[in-house]
Amino acid sequence: MDKKSIKGLFVLLLTCLVIFAGCGKSKNKGPLVESDAPSKVYVEPGKYDEFYAFVSGGFSGQLAVYGLPSGRLLRVVPVFSQNPENGWGYTEETKPMLNTSYGFVPWDDSHHSELSMKDGVPDGRWLFINGNNTPRIARVNLSTFRTEEIIEIPNSAGNHSSPFITPGTEYVVAGTRFSIPVENRDVPIESYKENFKGTLSFLKVNPSSGEMDIAFQLITPGFDYDLSHAGKGPSDGWFFFSCYNSEQSYSLLEVNASQKDKDFILAVNWKKIEELVAKGVGKEMPASYVHNVYDDKKHSGTSETRKSVKVLYPNDVEGAMYYMPCPKSPHGADVDPTGEFIVGGGKLATVIPVFSFSKMTKAINEKKFDGDVEGIPVLKYEEVLAGEVQQPGLGPLHTEFDDKGYAYTSMFVSSEIVKWKVDTREVVDRLPVYYSVGHLLIPGGDSKKPWGKYLVSMNKITKDRFLPTGPELSQSSQLIDISGDKMKLLLDFPTVGEPHYAQAIPADLISKNSLKIFKIEENAHPYGIKSEKDARVERKGNEVHVYMSAIRSHLTPDNIEGVKVGDDVYFHLTNLEQDWDIPHGFTIMGNQNSELLVMPGETCTIKWTPKAPGIYPYYCTDFCSALHQEMQGYMRVSDKNSNVQIKFNSNQGK
Ligand code: K7E
Ligand code: CUA
Question: Among 111, 161, 446, which residue has the most ligand 1 atoms within 8 Å of its CB, making it the best to mutate?
Fold first, then answer.
């Protein structure tokens, strides 16, 4: 190589470096955070976060709980997916919770978390979350951080526009994403227009127990019902569902369901329908769906199958449903804190349409219709529109609100959060996020009273934000300060699964009610024991029931003999502790199941079927005291035909 070409190479290299550095700047790091950002997210050791954030797990099926502003992961609450870490879905007590009409389903795709509300403000009692794939809604008790109810939604497929609630938690809704034949049956797919229907289910919530019950189901035209939100204030009594595929296509949807300029937001007057139902309108339709409930005293779940559901057709509820045209394939349907404005997130639209509730009621009264769809009047776009946000960015998906009259919309395609003024629809700020934001959250941001201090952007694509971890990267969330005029990026943190929606609430609304122990005297588990004296082993045919207790630092009984190959051994472990944060665990060698992790005062059961004679050690899996390692025992398993009798060492008098 001569000098000239070396020089040429050098220049080329330098150019590459400059270009590369340029790429790096625009794509790699984003704007630098302000110098006060660290102090805004730093939570001193021993201090608590200001907010709890409840983040849906997406394809993990679970719910993750983070502290804000620190972004610290506090807990993963198992909901729709089995969790071997604590036995959820593996223990005899929790298996019924994952029962469905399709059998035992140990997984789901959980998208939207929604806190219970009182007078339109989150109250911290319960959290609802949807199972998208096998249509279900779960309710988590926020004093125990446990799933205590799961109800299946019949006549639904892809329970996506769910589980949004009314301002007083009167109803939680479940709209179907996929339309299917109702009742589901074997028909040609080409008969879509004739046979496929949407359904919107309204589940009544018991105000004291939180238990859900399907009150009625609306059978609607065969569109894809995507998302929803309840009205509030003046619009309380209404529910708004976005829908796409008003083309009613059933193949190549990316093209065929994007033909029309406008799809719809369906406005449903649920109060009116509630009155009609009370008068006896609607008919029972046979259906099969399960309702699973967990009892905190029996420490057990039960699953019950229900056999019918009340359905209503558009002509049963005349004057209670209206379609509002909404630009191109809307996603989010979000109602501002005043209840006057309904924001559509047209993912393929170039504007953000903002609808006016008062204009909508006027248009209904004056019958400003543009035809109908299967008997549901279509309102005229201009008559219901408050205005459009012009040039907001690309791919508007979801909108949340602060307490100062601003809206924040996630832009999937242009990867940014756009802040705009709700009443004038004027864009006032935009902040790039990394990358491709889906949902966003503001504490109380879909309620009447947002605590508008932070915004969390939940991004779909992480790329270069964290240390690489092979082909799969964790999803990324970004905490943004929205207390001032300009949004300020504060923190990136990884999340569990693929968060779709999340909600946050001031910590004291939850922490003050947090349960510390289950009272042992209230333990009503049929196999629970109240003291070590009751620990024992009983044989019933080929079932062996071990009534075992755990307390620092021994398991009772610690030696068991007389179990035979082929027996079904049930370990019922009661944790006798009455101290906060002292669980005991349990497992036995070769256990084909998960471990048990038993909270103070609780009883849990694991089933084990030994396959070969021998000695099988068992032990506590949770490091509970200095003598945790001594918390162990032996099980002797004999041959099928042996005559070793049941015998156990209960430590009494030692
Ligand atoms: Cu709420 Cu992701 Cu289910 Cu939008 S969906 S992102
Ligand atoms: Cu109990 Cu370790």
Answer: 111
